[in-house]
Amino acid sequence: MPKKIVDGIYYVGSRHWDRRLFDELIPLPDGTTYNAYVVKGSEKIVLIDTVDPSKTRELLENLNELHFDRIDYIISNHAEQDHSGSIPALLEKYPMAKVVTNAKCKGFLKDLLLIEDEKFIVINDGDTLSLGNKTLEFILAPWVHWPETMFTYLQEDKILFSCDFLGSHLATSKLFVSEEPEVYEAAKRYYAEIMMPFRSMIKNHLKKLENYDIKIVAPSHGPVYEKPEFIINAYRDWISDEVKNEVVLIYVSMHDSTKVIAEHLIKKIEEKGIVVKPFNLTVSDIGEIAMALVDAATVILASPTVLTGLHPYAANAAFIMNALRPKTKFVGFVGSYGWGSKVIDQTKQLLNNLKAEFLEPILIKGYPKEHDFEELDKFVEILYEKHNKLGVL
Ligand code: FEO
After folding, report:
1. 148/252 same-domain check
2. Is the CB of 82 under 6 A from ligand 1?
3. 78 lines ligand 1 (CB under 6 A)
4. Hey, whose CA ends up nearest to atom 3 of ligand 1?
5. What would the pLDDT profile of 45-72 be if each residue is shown by its tens digit?
6. Which atom of ligand 1 is nearest to the CA of 146?
7. Structural contact between residues 9 and 160, judged by C-beta atoms closer than 8 angstroms
8. Do 276 and 224 contact (CB within 8 A), yes or no?
9. In angstroms, what is the span from residue 34 Cα to ligand 1's centroid?
10. How confident is the model at residue 139 (pLDDT cuts 50, 70, 90)?
């Protein structure tokens, strides 16, 4: 069912209540939505983005309920298929419609969806499109989170259609944000999972958006923001260089040695007044870990040695962390081995994207003994001093 945002502007997207995995990788504990919007001007009718191909029928039904005889333009802010995947079906239903997007996005849409060249109108940064009494302005915003991403700004109503940017994977009946803490959590998870690697680009985009009077933010996932400062301020915090007095301790254990190490560290770190967020990789949601990485001053990876290397779960976590590039200032490694190990070199190599200081690692032979616990205590002392010097205590 279409939902009115303001006069002439409707939500026509779809909720995917029971989707639990995105890209076969990212957990979706709250499902998601694929947001598409209609803007009806006095002369032209526009659809801003479409929906995931699995929900095309719902989008078409929503459009039918609005009783338009045509769609003039389909704006594509982002080529990923959860927003573009229904464009071919839309072009079939509305053969006169043109796909309006930037050159890079056009290339992706041709590659991914085999849309013909003549269907496109290519725009550049700052270009406008008149719908009669309404004007759309296009703002190129690469790397949130693909190179072709862009925003569309509706000048008269001061609405920013922000594609994935500022969005949240949260299926809800509510069109607008009503429970800010709930949306904050989902939006932070979303930021952590796909936006965090592009922190410096996002800084530039937020700066650019300061030139726009934004009354409503209509993202491509999750509810619409009637108070945009809520999510814009949250993003400002997440992308800032500031970190919190927190340690994310990511661990996996096979025969308890690493578990005992992790538990000792948790106790000692807490005693120092530092917040510790432990994640046992056998039971942890990778999205929760990503969220914790947004703010933490320190990350510690703890792993046993398997065939001279990291436990595969730990290697996977290090790989993901390296890809997400959190702003963490310190990285530590602790672990155990039986007869031989290359885990320290492997960890350093796997985390080579991080601009963090690598603390002196600790590798313990077998079950930790008294002198090992003393080493761990020293490790925590050093960590405490590092946080102190950073001014986060
Ligand atoms: Fe929601 Fe990058 O697609």
Report:
1. no
2. yes
3. yes
4. 80
5. 999 999 999 999 999 999 999 999 999 9
6. 2
7. no
8. no
9. 9
10. very high
